[in-house]
Amino acid sequence: MKRSSIFIIIFLLGFVFISSDLMGIPAFARKYKMSCKTCHEPFPKLKAFGEEFAANGYVLKDQEPSRAFTETGDDELTLIRDFPLAIRFDGFVKYNNGNTRTSDFAAPMNLKLLSGGVLAKNISYYFYFFFSEKGKIVGLEDAFLTFTDLFHSGIGLTVGQFQVSDPIFKRELRLTFEDYNIYKAKNGFSNIDLTYDRGIVLNYSISKGPDLFLEVVNGSGIGEANIFENFDSDKYKNVFGRISQNFGKHFRLGASGYYGKEAQEEIINKITIWGADATINFQGAQLNFQYMERRDDNPFFLLLNSNPDKIKIKGGFAELIVNPPSKDNRFYMVGLFNWIKADDEELDYRSGAVHFGYLVRRNIRLVTELDYIFKGPEGKHARALLGLIAGF
Questions:
Q1: Least confident of 58-72, 93-107, 210-224
Q2: Within a domain: residue 259?
Q3: At 171, phi and psi to the nearest 5?
Q4: What is the average per-residue pLDDT within 69-73?
């Protein structure tokens, strides 16, 4: 299995680097012959234009290249002429002053193969394959089809696997090494959190009104299918909803909620999660806030639950992104504070991160970050890193 995996990686990497059309240019920028800064500032963080481009199924309105698709002579068949591929490489030199007090060459820390594009009018796809994350072959994480205007209703439909929290703040697009930890928090033996799951997403934007999202998911993560070839580990489906409203150009307020059940050997755990978030934009900076509370009634799946009170987790994060406006600004800075307080004190977490970045090129970032974990599973410690992140 290891030899087969190595062979597949070598073959795919060879294909990427040998194909002259793919050399050194991100897929969407190559297709439209435009700079990465059109959608990102800095990459992978999306600007408003980039968010609109993604929501429109990776299509620029009235700017679709005439040669983007192969002429097949069949109006009912749309084939991309040049299959879009891209690579993301993250590598770091790290130092941790915790119990190990070790330095580490962590390169590659992440290595992804990404692809996305248009399959037909109002139908698009996106996926990435994790060649390596922390030294392991992970496989597919994001992988979905999107219908941007279902039956001309204005409703968008996404089917596949994705992060439940994506309609709020996308973990995959954050700039810091330190994570948005509240989205990963879960009690006891529960399998449910707000990261990856399989299901569907419906979204609708009301003119001058709120953006609405509704997700129906398995509630079982994105693990392997069982012996019955089912991904869902129980009979329950869980729901997540979100409403978000812009107030002028500089302020956005959102609210979200999750309700679900999960079963292990017919013992049921009920989960409710609710949260509020906000984004404040001003000249050269953005402030993001997230607060969430979670309740589980039996996360240890006890036959006789001796604790009738729901087990709680609450917390969130605050993030400040500073990107001074200028014609050719290459510097940016991020501050991130995480906070989690739980009935199970082992889940308590507090951290602060200060991150500085410099764009060597539009698609190459040199980064340095200092993280201090005030409280966590490894105790109080600091982590420093210097890294290079490239997308090509």
A1: 58-72
A2: yes
A3: -60, -35
A4: 74
